[in-house]
Amino acid sequence: MELEKILKKVSKPGRYTGGEYGQIIKDKEKISARVAFCFPDSYEIGMSNLGMRVLYHSLNLMPDVWCERAFSPLPDMENEMRANGIPLYALETFDSVKDFDFMAITLQYELCYTNALNLIDLAGLPLRASERDESFPLVIGGGPCTYNAEPLCEFFDAFSIGEGEEALCEMVRLYIDMKKSGRYSKKEYLRELSHINGFYVPSLYEVEYGSDGAVSAYRPLYPDVPEKVVKRIIGNMDKAPYPDKFVMPYIETVHDRITEEVYRGCIRGCRFCQAGMVYRPVREKSPDTVNDQIKCLYENTGYEEASLLSLSVSDYSELSLLTEKLLSWTDEKKVNLSLPSLRADTFSKELMERISHVRQSGLTFAPEAGTPRLRDAINKNVTEEEILSACRLAFEGGKNSVKLYFMLGLPTETEQDLAGIAALAKTVVDEYYKCEKRVKGKNVQVTVSCACFIPKPFTAFQWDAQDSIESLTEKQNYVRGLITDKRIKFNYHDARASRVEAALARGDRKMSKVLIEARKLGMSFDSWDEHFSYEKWEKAFAQAGLDMGFYANRAIPADAVLPWDMIDIGVTKAFLKREYDKSRKSEPTPNCKEKCSGCGANRLGGVTKWCPKISE
Amino acid sequence: MVPENIRIKFHKKGRLIYISHLDLCRTVCPAMIRAKIPLWYTEGFNPHPKMVFAQPLPLFVESRCELLDIKITEPTPCEEIAKRLRQALTDDLYVEEVYPAKAKFQEIEYAKYTVCGDESFADVACGVFDSEHLTVEKKGKSGTVSTDILPQIKSVQRTGEKEFECVLSASASSYLNPMLFCKAIAEKAGIQDGEPDVRIIRTGWQKKDMSEFR
């Protein structure tokens, strides 16, 4: 077989061979629909993705449906595949994705768009949905980027908006039903799919542009197609399907451990954060569910580390009860617990002690901004004292390194705020030496990591302009200049990649031309520093006749139609506008535990702990 | 109880030939936990289960005789361990037998391989002792070195039209990688770019006196 020869030539062939313990094998004879779940990044990254694990499990719960996996081959493998005429295949059967009924591509970050297109191409499908007839699989997009999927509209037949556990099953069920009753045609199917909650079929909408080139109106082409697509949510997290086993990769992946989702949504409402808005309302699993699921996964995977996942895990209302339940058996079984998303204001001594078993060298906190004023403006309600006390706890607990995450270029940011970053880092260093109970004889290491602010759809800052590359670079240099202490390490993100990300995030349908050009230039793996080429992106925009600055660096008027206005995430535009206005006055908003701010997400229902309007 | 030394004999085949030894090591540990094997953990700062492989298997080589030693803390029948491990692993890592570990891995002197290629490849391989040397170029830190690997080849025997069996050195002080051996044969046979299209299967171990090691 040709594939066998190729596998001997490429690096880490284990990425391309499947056959892992825990993969799901079914009898093709009994299958009515086959789904290729495609992750547009490497095997190592995709296999660590919880969403993929959950949806692989959910789809395969249906006896007549078989979901398999596919990932982006790395350039060496891609070249070999193309040279030898091997199309994209699924790992379970090595069957060509082209022969599947669905090609479901998860869109986790904007810089994977080029990989998504490459996957479609590698599978042997025409890129444009309009050029694919009944003989090709339906290409469906899902994941966080679909909240504004406009740049990808031309390439996908439909997008699943929101949580997919139930929606994807309904999508496949409709397909099977229509096929069996002989009613199926791609056109009819997509029309009917648009009637299912949470499905956005872009070809059923038309978009108008104003003289400035911005979207001025959009409308459904038919009266039965909904004007707004409301995102799907899982009502009761305790009853939602959750994998009882994982596919166990043979090769090392990014996260080789049990990942357990504790709750969805976030009570905080940071104004730059898209996840905090699009995953609302908050819905928690009960401590028993979490404990049972982890126990079951421990037995079925053999992983000795379990990670509690949520946007801000220390906000879980029953964290203390949960850790108690977990520690009653995890210590004995030598299972480590890790809590990757801790907030400085909820970081307690008790929590520190409970996770002290975890082998990790340092702790990470995200103040995001250097001054209380800017932290109020972005609604990151953390005080300097809270940050310092969290660091103190960490130092007393034997840690001597702390990572601090910040953002540069935030709306309303001043020079003072930038200076505040360096000052805060210095205060943390001083705090270490003030701390009596620190481990003596060691120096402290404070790492300051500065990302660039990216305005994202469905945030209070969605209307804001991103700083120019020059300005961001200047700010990076300014902060670096202020950091003179050798115990402080300064890292920053590439402003150019952030600009491309911003442009794609706020893109409209015209952007598809850019992506076509990007494909022609052979671009892929843009989220990998070594493959990202800003020059190529500039070229792709130029060839498409579009201005990257129009999408990234333009402040959008508050009354403008937004390219993503046809999507309803629950949280209302009016709320986001209120939040925008408050940010200009540096006025914080209380979190959902303290007071309901009327974001609107409770309209979607769901069993939730922190939304008073739903509890009633 | 005193930890008991247990030896697991397993196959590594199919899709597993693309998995490196290091990745295999990582794979086995969770599998032991899935199989509820009462593993003995080292008593250090960072406790981990004690596991020792007889020898790493080169990438792309199959095996029917991989050996792995573990220590267990509760008496468990060997057949029970084998049964549970089979359930916790895929067929590409088939557990053939589990038995008390007696002989030490240091006693291994040779490994036996079956090589399937084409007829002319087998012809050249079987005639390897007609020459006085079999030189290969090895790339090391200090540049390329020529080595004569003939002394590390114990025997080569035809077992079929396109197939032969060879016994190669596999001790701690002298080890010949079967891939390297096949490359040398391919070069001798004049195969372009020296990449032999062969299937190599490790089939057994031998002690210094050529008796079977198990």
Describe the 3D structure.
- Helices cover 34% and strands 14% of the residues of chain A.
- With 616 residues, chain A is an alpha/beta fold.
- Chain A folds into three domains: 2-230, 3-Layer(aba) Sandwich (Rossmann fold), CATH 3.40.50; 257-347 and 586-616, Transcription Regulator spoIIAA; 361-493, Transcription Regulator spoIIAA, CATH 3.30.750.200.
- In chain A, the strands form six sheets. Chain A has a six-stranded mixed sheet, sandwiched between helices. In chain A, strands 15-16-17-18 form a four-stranded parallel sheet. A three-stranded parallel sheet of chain A has the order 10-13-14, covered by helices on one side.
- In chain A, strand 16, helix 14 (415-434) and strand 17 form a beta-alpha-beta unit.
- The mean pLDDT of chain A is 93.
- Chain B starts with a strand and ends in an 8-residue tail after the last strand.
- Chain B is α+β, with helices and mostly antiparallel strands and 214 residues long.
- The model of chain B has no long low-confidence stretch (mean pLDDT 92).
- Chain B has helices at residues 21-34, 78-88, 119-126, 178-188; strands at 4-12, 51-53, 62-72, 95-100, 110-116, 135-140, 143-148, 153-160, 163-169, 199-206.
- Chain B has two domains: 4-102, Alpha-Beta Plaits; 107-206, Alpha-Beta Plaits (2-Layer Sandwich), CATH 3.30.70.
- Helix content of chain B is 21%, strand content 33%.
- The longest helix of chain B is centred in the first third of the chain and has 14 residues, at 21-34.
- The radius of gyration of chain B is 19 Å and the shape is elongated.
- Classes of the chains: A alpha/beta (616), B alpha+beta (214).
- Chain A binds chain B through residues 5, 7-8, 13-14, 16-21, 248, 250-252, 256, 298-304, 334, 359, and chain B through 14-16, 18-20, 23-24, 26-27, 29-34, 41, 46-47, 59-60, 88-90, 92, 195, 197.
